[in-house]
Amino acid sequence: MPTENELFNAVDALLEEVAQDELPSPAERKRLREAAGLSQAQIASALNARREAVGNWEAGRTEPRPPKRAAYARLLEGLAARFPAPAAEAVTEARTAPETFTGRSAPAAAPPAAQHSSRPTHSDPPPADASPPTSRRPTARCTTPKPASATQTGDPRFAHGPLAVIDVADGAVSAYCLGGLVLDVPAKSLSALVEWVLTEAKLGAPRLHRSGKDADPLMVLTDAAAERYGLPTRLSDEERRAGRLHEDHKILKQLDKANWQLTRRGFGPWARIYRPAQGARRSCVQLCILGWNALDERSWGQAAQLPAPDLANLLGAYAERVMTPRGSTAVTGLELMTALHPPTRASEPDETGKRHREHNPGSLGTEPVECAPPEAPDGHPLLAHLPRFHQRTPAEVLVEEAYDWARPLTDDECTKRFVVGIDVNMAFAAAANGTVVGLGAPVHVKQPVFDPKLPGSWLVDLSHIALDPRLPSPFTPTGERPTGPAWYATPTVAYAVELGYRVTPLEAYVRPDNGRYLDGWYNRLRDAYVATMADLGVTPSMSPEEFLAAMDGHKQNDPRMAIVLTAIKATVKGGIGKLRERPRGGGWRPGQSWPALARPTWRPDIRAAVISKARINMHRKMLKLAGATGRYPVAVLSDCAVYASDGPGPLDFLPYEGGKPLPGGFRLGVSPGMVKHEGTQTTLWAEGAYEEHGPGLNLARYIKDGRVTHTDSGE
Prior knowledge:
- There is one protein chain.
- The chain is of the alpha+beta class.
- Helices cover 32% and strands 15% of the residues.
- It has a nine-stranded mixed sheet with strand order 1-2-5-4-3-6-9-8-7, sandwiched between helices. The protein has a five-stranded antiparallel sheet with strand order 12-20-21-13-24. The chain has a four-stranded antiparallel sheet with strand order 15-18-16-17.
- A hairpin with a 2-residue loop joins strand 3 (163-169) and strand 4 (172-176).
- The longest helix is centred in the last third of the chain and has 26 residues, at 604-629.
- It is globular, with a radius of gyration of 28 Å.
- 42% of the residues are buried.
């Protein structure tokens, strides 16, 4: 018989096992990870699990099993102690029934018609330029209730979500929020609207990193709202060129009178209105003015034409998955980098117990760093000494760009019936993942020994490397073989070494202070992309055949989410592009500085490293496919490659053995780095295009719809 101690030990073990089974909800697991600034990959690495497993735990699709479950529970318990979730009182009620936020509950027995059809009346609103009385609370009306979103359950300060679309109907101003929630807006002036948003609207979003800042509330103004608050529905030609209202506009005077300030961008399509922070409290509102082309059609399609409730949900989905928009998708992509890697953090307490701001390791810091001379674009102040109209050679300038290469079809390829394009999903995001980039200033080195782990720019002669001419050279964007020494980013030179060639750099600008700065950025955008594709009916678990079928017309499944998808992809490309933003607007002259140079995130070397890796990734897959099948691309444009094929689909030329893709080659699927079908045309179409526009035509540019609208200049 077991002794008493043995029985107690068995019971204690059982209790411990039960305790380990107690995990927070899937949504809370994700909140805790994001609050700590951790990626799914980091948690997976610590628990010796797959990243996909962590994602499944956070989505509630699966649950961790022992012994990982106990370790995961311990991690979440520790994070919960450091990042407690504030009580979210009354949030769910605001989602399911109207409520006047005066500390009293809405009538419990109100019939549905009364709940959704009438607008509660208010007494006379405050005079212009006056803040609404603090005793007044916004009235919430909810139509088509939906479950509260992640931003609406963790923090009562932001109970109504990250943003609202302001519209006017029948003389009444309403703020349309996520999930059908509608708030009555009492403000009579723009300055009063800003005050109301900050004091009563409960809009905004919690920080993405524990050392970061909460997202400012976003107010989207329709034409009717802009007119109601004294703004023009369209900018004049002069204002549009300047990107802002004229400085003597009455609205600017009104804001100044109420002690509101504007950023250096002025009052433009994405105006930021603020008062200097008081301690840790921020007073800042972001405006998005639809009539001023704030939502560029190239990134947002016809979003600006949507009804206010639909637009609120669309922008809200983007805000929850990426972040609250801070400007164009390019600006938001750049801001997301900083939000996930804030430049400063709180120090440990000093001898008086006070904390101070200090550099946050792994970030780009608070001050810009000078680029290396070969990394500087034309017109940069570092190049002011060069003669006017000087054309820099490859030995003087780093040129890491995406592919734009094409060749004529061979006789054998002309016998194929089709040309088929495949496109890499989120190619730049996939390239950013795991890339080590410089965090600090460059160090100039003469006669360096190449180190593939050291980010930087290298002057090296790769002209001795001869590859099959049916493939583009991996070392130039044009695909042409190098003719002498040239500057390259680390991934390009590392690929030459990978191919088995000797490299002897002449000099280099390297960055000893480095890290995987973009990993968190990639993880968040990847998750946003995959989740949005799932909304459109395309999931990672699909077979190649199922994937191709699901992709056929997937954007028609939910046109609104298709817009979100386009915006996410534009955020990736635009964010990388912003790392080397060029001068904009009139008045600038070569050799002069421009505003973007003052940002710590103006980093042409990081942009070069990502684009270099994306191009190398593309070449590596094309080389694998050529070695296994003897098939070579006939055109490559950035992340799209075109192949001659006997059949009209990717599976007619991509090798799949037993349902498994070629290792290291192109793989059909939804995840970033995998490929999808871009388009198919006949070989006769290709030959006709060559005959009309010349053999240098890049078929990848027109493979999607087959319309060659102009002679290809390669621009």
